[in-house]
Amino acid sequence: MTETADAVVVGGGTIGAWCAYFLRQAGLGRVILLEKGILGEGASSRAAGVVRLQGGTPAAVRLSQWSRAFYLRQRDEIGTDSGFTEQGYLLPCFTEAEVAAARSRMEMQAALGLPVRWLNPGEADAANPALAPGQTLGGTFCDQDGFIAPPRNVAAYTVALIRSGVEVREHVAFLGLGGDGTRSAEGSSAGSVETSQGRISAGLVVLTGGPKLAEVGRRAGLRIPAGGVRHQVAVTERHPGLDPARVPMVFDLAEGLYWRPEEGGLLFGMSNPDEPPGDNREVDEEYLATMRTRMAALVPATAGLGLRRVWAATIDYTSDHMPIIGRAPGLEHVTVAGAAGAGMMWGPGLARATADVALTGASDVLDTSGLGLDRFDEAGRSRLATDPIALPFPERIASS
């Protein structure tokens, strides 16, 4: 028998789960979430959790602002939270070109209400005592930037799904779309979703999938130019010089290296700009050693420290480092969403915007009109300017 639902969301990661929750909050009667494994077992539980308001484009700033505000009100709304910690974030500059670009970004960010300020070299050193003095030409700083605990975020959206009444189907794979002309539970025109446990007739369908979004798209008959690539994260052992009061978050943008406090040590993440697309989740010891050398030069307390944890995950990306939010071409009941590697940073805002677009075609979170699949050409290249504050993902998309 064919089930009926008002909406089916594919993917139980940060974007899909929060989107399903927001669809229920908007008043849809029956929302089904499909997850081929278990909730949060992919990139969502392996992230670094950074929530940075200092986006490189207005869209990035808007998504982060909405997400941060949501993290702060979660406990009142759902009874638990994702563990947001306000830490402050320094984006240091090492060249005059980086200084000019940073000051230009500050104008855009300030116009959007972001409390970002410029720190001269001495002020940057004072704000970050763990940083080796005299290394930078200054940088931008935002006190409101922070981080969440990714496993706690998975727990939070699990609670939200259960309490809101979303029907979670774990170990159920999405196989494709149909167009059988049946009706949803509320009588609206619907297509169908084929799953490993049967067919569901749905008024709305939302496709997510993080690093597997292109594969999800292929099953739906869509070409989605989103890729996946290895990203590595490590946590050092404890050190008194790495007390959270001495270590704001820092993003060494040119090297694709960032760090933040974690358990009395330092959590640092890195992406190799020469890494080819793929789902390799083994630790690259050679590249890790290279980044540790860079880290030791900038944060001397980390030199020689043991590592408590090291892991690699597959992170999603697009050619312009911008999210995907939009209805699928020719399929008005199907909406596609991808976070371009910023699932923790943009996740709730992106999920809410996606739910809005699925329901009405637009959102008050941000203007989504330019973020759909139609911005990409046949080679996966985007007509949008690339977000300059992003990890160095590959320039090509494996699926293209």
Could you tell me the number of beta strands? 19
List SSEs in N-to-C order: EHEEHEEHEHEEHEEEEHEEEEHEEEH
Q: Give me the CATH fold name of the largest domain.
A: FAD/NAD(P)-binding domain
Please, what is the CATH homologous superfamily of the largest domain?
FAD/NAD(P)-binding domain
- Give start-end ranges of low-pLDDT stretches: 181-189
Q: Per CATH, which architecture of the largest domain?
A: 3-Layer(bba) Sandwich
Mean pLDDT: 93
In angstroms, what separates the terminal alpha carbons? 37 Å
CATH class identity of the largest domain: Alpha Beta
Task: Describe what you observe in this structure.
Helices cover 28% and strands 26% of the residues. It is an alpha+beta fold. It folds into three domains: 1-88 and 145-226 and 318-400, FAD/NAD(P)-binding domain (3-Layer(bba) Sandwich), CATH 3.50.50; 89-143, no CATH class; 227-316, D-Amino Acid Oxidase, subunit A, domain 2 (D-Amino Acid Oxidase, Chain A, domain 2, 2-Layer Sandwich), CATH 3.30.9. The strands form three sheets. Strands 1, 2, 9, 10, 11, 12, 18 and 19 form an eight-stranded mixed beta sheet that branches. It has an eight-stranded mixed beta sheet with strand order 6-7-5-14-15-16-13-17, with helices on both faces. A three-stranded antiparallel beta sheet has the order 3-8-4. A hairpin with a 2-residue loop joins β18 and β19. α1 crosses α8 and α2 (58-78) packs across α8. The chain is globular, with a radius of gyration of 21 Å. The model is unreliable at 181-189 (pLDDT under 50).
